[in-house]
Amino acid sequence: MDMVVTRDRRGRTDRPALGASLLERYHSVRSASLQVASPLSAEDQCVQSMPEASPTKWHLAHTTWFFEALVLQPQMAGYRCFDARYSHLFNSYYEALGPRHARALRGLLTRPAQHEVLSYRRYVDDAVEALIRSGAADARVEALVELGLNHEQQHQELMLTDIKHAFYLNPLKPAYRPGGACGIDQPAPMRWTAHEGGIREIGHDGESFSFDNERPRHRVLLPPFQLASRAVTCGEYLEFMHDGGYRRPELWLSDGWAAVQSEGWLAPLYWEADDDGLRSVFTLQGLRPLDPAEPVCHLSFYEACAYASWAHARLPTEFEWETAAAAWLPPVEGPVWQWTRSSYDPYPGFQPSSGPIGEYNGKFMVGQLVLRGGSWATPPGHARITYRNFFAPGARWQFSGLRLARDV
Amino acid sequence: MDMVVTRDRRGRTDRPALGASLLERYHSVRSASLQVASPLSAEDQCVQSMPEASPTKWHLAHTTWFFEALVLQPQMAGYRCFDARYSHLFNSYYEALGPRHARALRGLLTRPAQHEVLSYRRYVDDAVEALIRSGAADARVEALVELGLNHEQQHQELMLTDIKHAFYLNPLKPAYRPGGACGIDQPAPMRWTAHEGGIREIGHDGESFSFDNERPRHRVLLPPFQLASRAVTCGEYLEFMHDGGYRRPELWLSDGWAAVQSEGWLAPLYWEADDDGLRSVFTLQGLRPLDPAEPVCHLSFYEACAYASWAHARLPTEFEWETAAAAWLPPVEGPVWQWTRSSYDPYPGFQPSSGPIGEYNGKFMVGQLVLRGGSWATPPGHARITYRNFFAPGARWQFSGLRLARDV
Amino acid sequence: MDMVVTRDRRGRTDRPALGASLLERYHSVRSASLQVASPLSAEDQCVQSMPEASPTKWHLAHTTWFFEALVLQPQMAGYRCFDARYSHLFNSYYEALGPRHARALRGLLTRPAQHEVLSYRRYVDDAVEALIRSGAADARVEALVELGLNHEQQHQELMLTDIKHAFYLNPLKPAYRPGGACGIDQPAPMRWTAHEGGIREIGHDGESFSFDNERPRHRVLLPPFQLASRAVTCGEYLEFMHDGGYRRPELWLSDGWAAVQSEGWLAPLYWEADDDGLRSVFTLQGLRPLDPAEPVCHLSFYEACAYASWAHARLPTEFEWETAAAAWLPPVEGPVWQWTRSSYDPYPGFQPSSGPIGEYNGKFMVGQLVLRGGSWATPPGHARITYRNFFAPGARWQFSGLRLARDV
Amino acid sequence: MDMVVTRDRRGRTDRPALGASLLERYHSVRSASLQVASPLSAEDQCVQSMPEASPTKWHLAHTTWFFEALVLQPQMAGYRCFDARYSHLFNSYYEALGPRHARALRGLLTRPAQHEVLSYRRYVDDAVEALIRSGAADARVEALVELGLNHEQQHQELMLTDIKHAFYLNPLKPAYRPGGACGIDQPAPMRWTAHEGGIREIGHDGESFSFDNERPRHRVLLPPFQLASRAVTCGEYLEFMHDGGYRRPELWLSDGWAAVQSEGWLAPLYWEADDDGLRSVFTLQGLRPLDPAEPVCHLSFYEACAYASWAHARLPTEFEWETAAAAWLPPVEGPVWQWTRSSYDPYPGFQPSSGPIGEYNGKFMVGQLVLRGGSWATPPGHARITYRNFFAPGARWQFSGLRLARDV
Fold it and tell me: What is the complex's ipTM, to 2 decimals?
């Protein structure tokens, strides 16, 4: 794992457990983004290593633009934009909010400078805080601020996945943050836990925050199944590799096997083979010896499926996962996101939110797979057992692993 | 539509309704392939217009190789291959059966000549018929022959979709077969039929033939829904176009909108705008005036979704579709395949067939969407209400349209 | 070499040595094209293996269109086109003559059928012959017919290079024409012939036919140089390979080394290494053992330069080549075209021909290198010592080899 | 033009006109690079806008590595590298000096930080200066230092062309340096100057510095020609545009016309059309109104040729240019580089320098065209009348324009 976070949370769906007001929460989440960026130089914050990744600075500005475009401009009388040109630069994919700088060219934005983006953040923070303090923020505005904070938390994790990718492509293999050994001695033994199936409730309900893609709560009929008690470890994954996992097409989905060939995959992303045959892994603390006890991470969906096939098991559906999680809170938030065998399809009765935020989730509901759980990099309190993360099946730069399931 | 086929079948799952023996059925299906190829010259049969399409001659040889590799070689003592090199040329994607000629280069196979492929067909037909007549064919062999015949029927439809695509790219716009007007005067009025939902059985069961992806039969819990009484027509689709359908990103999935931009889509595939503003459509009978009464065809999943969104409706899930079809036989086999809102995922408890034929379906279960029904080009008796066709969401060269659904 | 042609010609610039009339010459050249196509089936004649190559049928039609568009339409009163749509299909690159079917899609033209193209040829032949016989053809028309015949001869060679490439990509490795061994026992010993340099006349002059790129004849100042007495052989090239030729960047131009890496070049095009280490070479007679005595062929300019560098020599400039050739006729027409170290630039005072035929040569004068000589596949009488062939530096599917030069 | 530089130099080939010692010259040239970088932030210095361009920081480090790898390591006893990993990062293309970081990924090098690169420069400067001061530097070392300084001057110009390209792609269109109007009121009238041709000496000779590609000095035979008295202006180029220059294929080389189509060229690089039809041009001072009196700049070779064709003229050969320049010093160093009609081929008798610096020029002698003169951004004293700059014919981001020539 990239970082060891001590945490005793339980992934509860009721977020502000400490009774924090929205203002405190706003301050806390916004500060956390700066904290994530703090080990990085202005140069580091400007780099984009591939079209799917974004510069740190862009993340910092985009999450700020989100509040400006979706809260301040529509809801705060007399608000003046910090810079009218920023909407073009920092709109990610909201067609309803106008044209955008090309995604693949975000790394060219040496201007605005990093310090200007920090000024932008302060300017918008002042305005949002003033809006909240003014008492003019009704429930709808509060919901938008809450959405903005959850959005920002998603980007906090992306800042880490994206800078990790950029640093990995630098031959100097810089460390994001110095750090020591991982500290996991022995993985817990893996056990199968049985679930009887039947009609289950899936998805989020009630007043507390969720994304629209977790709704509506609805009933599904599950067959009996078994779920592993923990994620697959690097040591287990090494057995798959030593057994020819990357050379045996019969274990792979067709698109997965094509990716193995065209991309030359021989191991998870960030694994390196030393001359003496030992393996090391690139982490946010730099290159480290591979620890077989750690959960395997940076797998594509294809690799997760091939491993499961090799292990005479399968991936769980997202419904199985959620059903199990409702019983056992532990899987939420870490240590790695878990690929499921569920395509990212809309729930029955799904309606995107109205207005521009309707583009947040719904328009991506094709060609992606659902991941459940959370990673060590997911901000505490962000995920839920109903939380649906999603990526394309070939994506490997997220903190993505797997947990096995099987039929009874 | 490309062709008007008079047919009064009802899509029953029990195939050999006329009591045809396997031998008669073998002869009948194999002859039908030659019938499909018969209007085409040797040159026509050799061309490949894109990597996803194959030459007619290749289809004729590949379906023959399927019997040779999966029936004759493993099951018929003393069988000698027609030409040992053909396995390399005509294996489509069976990793277990050795390396293959690259898919995108099938159009380079001017040799073997078309007449040699016909000799290959006769040689294999003689052997398969001898095997069946010998009485040495047990139930497993019969099942493989039946699979081979269903496989061949799938390629009969592909021969038509593929040559249509190749002819369309020829500036001479040749006709596959001469033909007259379409003959549909007025579409039936569209009605919504309500379904109460509940626990339903989905998938194929019993002794009669099905593909492995239709199994196992299992129960799903459906919400109440409504399904349209017929497919969307060209006239209805024109309204969507006239209302800016291809210019309004809010109607589209993100990947769909990207395809509209990058591919320059302005209409379904094969539609052309004349100088005087009238529209014509390329068919297997050549260019014809667009008939608003016909079902709209050659849509991608993206376009089908965008249309449904514009119509304040949605696509049905494959489970809704199958549930409705079990009540109303009409939708099976035509006139157009219908995109569903279901990703092509495995059914609970799905197990691919053992041996090489396990590669037939299971390894494609990611990144594709399910189509249900059948088209005018689907061979009579081939489809079933449990039949799962599947293509990538951007595919437009199949006979693919849509039927609307909505929540209650 | 692909074929052994017995020939005692000397590459004279005065073409109709036998006193042949234009009519006889027209008939003879046009027939020769059909002769080249005669071993090929209709399927073979339709295939296109890469954008740079064209189908045989397309060559047959394009050379016919050339007479129709440049001779008959402008010069023959009352001429009616065979099919008005053919100009779109068979115009190669003449912007002045209207839009064209995309070059890379020529292989999709299964229609017109091969027999229709033969009818087109007969129709145009009848008209051209009638025009010549009518006496209405003045010197300008005769010059255009002569250009058309030289153009057709160029395509006769291209028909062979293009079908060879297509057959090579067919795993069956078909032979264009059966044939036996090559029959060269021992290459002549290689000698250096010295030339004193000085002011020399370069380029074509006078009344006999030449392409515009060979004109005007002009004077150049040459340093003294030496030229090899024959082309480099396969045996010599094998020494380069055995000495690490394809692994030593210091021997290569930068673009050449990049091509070695990206294309995976390990040997000339069409060379294959058998399991037992012996080498064979694909020819128009199929796969044959490599003959070390043959001139090496199917080299790119990059490979020719790298070989020369390894041999402590260089390629001749086209001016050196022509100067030497004016003394020694042997190098003209075979056995292989010889890359020179001259970029294909215009001669001083160059003027493209007026009208559409001005596009024949001039617009390609950038990014290409000059080859001199001719190959066994060049029609007898076609080449001259002033003849400038040209291809991009990475092209390998032509019959291209090299002859060494060096400074004194 | 991007910048107005007052200068009265005459492009003499004897560089150190002021009697500057090598040490002074070293200091002066190295300082000038920092001067070029000084308006740029660390973020700006890290960005790479396309594979052909490099980050400022990379230029600063690469030019330093050049001294380290080619002077200090081979020539200075006991020299220890600043960082052994830098050779991998900052070697541009010297195969003899080991493997290299991929060119297209130079923009990912956020580390080493800009301040570390400055430390690297100081470290190497101290060592080079110590080496020179020590008296241990013989003529060969001095020649290598001189080469390194000329190399650094080339990169000073590239730093400007590269950052201009990156800033142009930033929607904020930042200015490298504030600045006012251009200040050219009226272009001088254009006159043709006649040259009688004959045998002329071309190339560099003698002791003073030149690149190896300028040697050996040799004789060429030139026909009579005329050369324009100045470069083509923006106003003249606008006439070409207004006369359909970018829509008339007959004016273009074939590859040029293909580039016009595929790249959508409508004007020189950096020209923009305002809504009111006025034109502005992006410069290092930001967007400015187009000045018709300025020399046209940022043309590809293709555009230069098309313009010349439209003007019933042609580009000069590099030999014509040099012959004229030997008479008239003005064309050297500015205001824009001038495309010639000469491919970048080796001079007769050309020998690359021995050792790694043999890769400096020779291996690029294919596929490029020669530019002569110099631009306002060429460091004073850097260019010569024998100087051969070269770029691919489609390159537009250099300060490249044209001067017309014509036959007599």
Answer: 0.94
